[in-house]
Design brief:
mainly alpha; two-stranded antiparallel ribbon; Arc Repressor Mutant, subunit A; 4 helices; binds FE2/S2 (inorganic) cluster
Length: 68
């Protein structure tokens, strides 16, 4: 589905860019041109960006009582 009509960018292209390391709207704009003309695609492109970023999980800290 087209996300950015002005630059003919699809959601698939955005997800591929994220897989290739894009993490911010600025990077997305530089790579694909998303949100660089009328700007109407910005909100949806950001939603895709936020929902597709790899999750960073933090391991729970070791409990002091069990670590000894
Ligand atoms: S729809 Fe993306 S800049 Fe216009």
């Amino acid at each position: 589905m087209y996300v950015c009509v002005c630059r003919a960018v699809t959601d698939r292209q955005i997800r591929q860019a994220i897989d290739e390391g894009v993490r911010t709207m600025r990077e997305l704009r530089l790579k694909l041109g998303v949100c660089s003309a009328c700007g109407k695609c910005g909100e949806y492109a950001k939603e895709i960006l936020d929902s597709s970023k790899p999750r960073i999980t933090v391991a729970p800290a070791k409990d002091a009582a069990t670590a000894a």
